């Protein structure tokens, strides 16, 4: 069996030459587009890295200033962080993600208390209790209510909460 001698006809020669030229042109277009895309990505990454370093420097400066102020005002401690724990979450078989979302919601509600004096916050403990206990927290098509079980004041406000299913 023999292959027909189509390569000798001028029409087939033009077709194969067109295929080769088209492949080369498409390869160069691909390389150009890929290079432009990579250049944009590199610019974005360098901008983000610069912003991260600037923010880290800013955070370090703020933390140094905060520690200096705390050392100057040893009698007046300030709230710097929150630790929220839901004590009886196993009672409702909450998924870890749902538990995390509930604690995040509580922390978001408490964010306005950062840099507040521990002394004044301990005097207004009942206001803190009402702010948490009067709010309903939706999660997974259910609504939960949180009750404060224990509160510990230091530079870190530690809350232990009990959970109740509203509906």
Automatic annotation (TrEMBL):
Domain Sporulation membrane protein YtrI C-terminal, chain residue ranges per copy: 80-164
InterPro entries in the record: YtrI, YtrI_C
Transmembrane portions of the chain: 15-37
UniProt feature coiled coil, ranges: 45-72
Keywords of this entry: Coiled coil, Membrane, Transmembrane, Transmembrane helix
Any Pfam family hit: YtrI_sporulation
Keyword Transport set for record: no
Protein name, UniProt field: Sporulation membrane protein YtrI C-terminal domain-containing protein
Organism: Litchfieldia salsa
Lineage, top ranks: Bacteria, Bacillati, Bacillota, Bacilli, Bacillales
